[in-house]
Amino acid sequence: MKNTLKPFFKNNKALFLAYDHGFEHGPKDLIGLGTRPEAIVDLALRGGYTGLILQKGLAEHYYSRKVQTKQLSLIIKLNGKTNLLTEEPYAALNCSVAYAKKLGAQAVGYTIYLGSEKEAQMFEDFGKVEEEAHRLGLAVMVWMYPRGKKVTPELLPQLTLYGVRLGLELGADLIKIKDPGSFELLKQTVELAGDSKIILSGGEKIAEEEFLDLVRKSVKAGVAGLAVGRNIWQRENPFVITEEIKKILWN
């Protein structure tokens, strides 16, 4: 494992608390603890998460000035888009790698919408991000999400596999994907990732036992970790489900 990744892993598994939803989804998902950024940071600290995912403004206000501990490593998401536009998706940069490091990040994140007519621009942007981040000693995580008018539900599983391979080819250390569906497909993502590590997105809130089954499936398939938001902080007791996830990941 690369030295840049070690702060994010415990017993070879990573558990990230994701809280970048306000940028992409607006306020509709910010319920429960999600209404209070300071409570999210507290959950990440006291819950024993290995990483916290934030956009730069939240990092400025709630992490960089108040936390910056080795117990909670920071991933700053460098790009994003709103959910207001209906054209082909493109997530524009809004933070530099150098500024992310200044804020205390140990890694940076970037979304690529595979299948978008603007994917080439995102490849170009990501190439610059990856080179600068590695030069500065930061890990790089890519959100590899198939999306665009040519991306149909039938194509999603195979495009997820394609995206994983692209993540490796583009130099990402961590590749964040949505569940491709079956256990066999999830195993294939791990194989295709090579030396890169697969991080499974928690996605929309689902029934608790269904979500824990997803965690079990991911561990069995060899996934390196989880990045979970709504399935944690939208619940009445996020600390309880956090402990259940940790038991599956680390016991």
Please explain how this structure is put together.
The protein is of the alpha/beta class and 251 residues long. The protein has one domain: Aldolase class I (TIM Barrel). It contains ten helices and ten strands. It has helices at residues 21-25, 37-46, 56-63, 97-102, 119-135, 156-170, 183-193, 208-221, 230-233, 238-250; strands spanning 14-18, 51-55, 73-77, 79-80, 92-93, 107-114, 139-146, 174-177, 197-201, 225-228. The strands form two sheets. It has an eight-stranded parallel β-barrel, surrounded by six helices. Strands 4-5 form a two-stranded antiparallel sheet. The longest helix has 17 residues, at 119-135. The radius of gyration is 17 Å and the shape is globular. The model has no long low-confidence stretch (mean pLDDT 95).
